[in-house]
Design goal:
With about 300 residues, this protein is of the alpha+beta class. It is about 35% helix and about 30% strand. The chain is built from 10 helices and 11 strands. The structure holds L-homoserine. The site of L-homoserine has 14 residues, from helix 4 and helix 5.
């Protein structure tokens, strides 16, 4: 049996919601998987020629983790991965790989694992639940690590908001972008973020776009990550001056995510302003609006009668 899985990109944190909020975006990786003796991986797109094509491949490790969790022997698998989510940019490529592998493995076994088990396995593998929750469930996700595993709730996203991503032509390792964070923070900074993440979720649900600018502010990670991305304040400022309600680091960066009310014209103006501001800092990058993915990881059996 062969299965096909489609997994969306994701933007984590959304400013103040460090390691909790995630937004699934309509940019997809695809995995085709079938059981085999040993592991073989073919990669098309981002990472081809660079990513491991043996049992160390993250998608293959995800498939194997699903077998292990289901108490089944993993014989191996033949995978084809079509990667459209750029690697090491802050758009959840690693989360998509874990989720793609886990969902593919689970489908090959006839789906013995439920979504909450898959979420817990993916969050454990990734080290934080925000990207994997969005990649698995789609939409705007609020996630937390609990003693019994990860938990996530999907919330509706206002359809009049547009999400512009700026993808710089530089990469950054999440581990390095986490290593610059302090191990403790002043209480006023913790309170600042609690207020903003609560305000952000309330504003999105109540349609209070007027407070989004304040609600997207953060003191837990971006001020420290400016060391790695010194152009962040000027590009975010350019996005706001071009009409964005707010502009934040996407996950651990270097990609940025701007929130825009309005239509295509407003989004394009923000996208161009972000590209130009990044270019002024000597870095090339491409910005475009991405729709919100509302389905998360979707699997289908190939060759099965429909
Ligand atoms: N919440 C994580 C971080 C996301 O900011 O480090 C990493 O993709």
């Amino acid at each position: 049996m062969k299965v096909h899985v489609r997994v969306p990109a994701s933007s984590a944190n959304l400013g103040p919601g460090f390691d909790s909020l995630g937004l699934a975006l309509a940019l997809y990786n695809e995995v085709t998987a079938e059981e085999a003796e040993g592991v073989r991986v073919r990669i098309e797109g981002d990472g081809a020629g660079r990513l491991a094509v043996n049992e160390r491949n993250v998608v293959a490790r995800g498939v194997s983790a699903a077998y292990e969790a289901a108490g089944r022997r993993f014989p191996g698998c033949a995978l084809t991965c079509v990667n459209r989510i750029p690697l090491s940019r802050g758009l959840g490529s690693s989360a998509a790989a874990w989720v793609g592998g886990l969902v593919a493995g689970n489908s090959l076994l006839g789906s013995p694992l439920d979504r909450s088990t898959l979420l817990t396995l993916a969050a454990r593998a990734e080290g934080h639940p925000d990207n994997v929750a969005a990649a698995l469930l789609g939409g705007l996700t609020v996630s937390a690590g609990g003693s019994d595993g990860a938990i996530a709730v999907v919330l509706p996203v206002p359809s009049n908001l547009h999400w512009v991503t700026l993808i710089p032509e530089i990469t950054s390792a999440t581990s390095e972008a986490r290593a610059v964070l302090p191990s403790s923070v002043p209480r006023e900074d913790a309170v600042f973020n609690v207020q903003r993440v609560a305000l952000l979720l309330a504003a999105l649900q109540a349609g209070r776009l007027d407070v989004l600018g304040t609600a997207l502010d953060d003191r837990l990670h971006q001020p420290y990550r400016v060391r790695l991305f010194p152009w962040l304040p000027s590009v975010a400022d350019a996005a706001r001056k071009a009409g964005a309600l707010g502009c934040v680091l996407s996950g651990a960066g270097p990609a940025l995510l701007a929130v825009v009310a309005g239509g295509e014209r407003e989004s394009s103006a923000v996208a161009r302003a972000m590209e130009e501001a990044l270019a002024r800092a000597g870095i090339a990058g491409a910005a475009k609006a991405l729709a919100v993915d509302r389905e998360g990881a979707v699997s289908a059996k190939l060759g099965a009668p429909s």
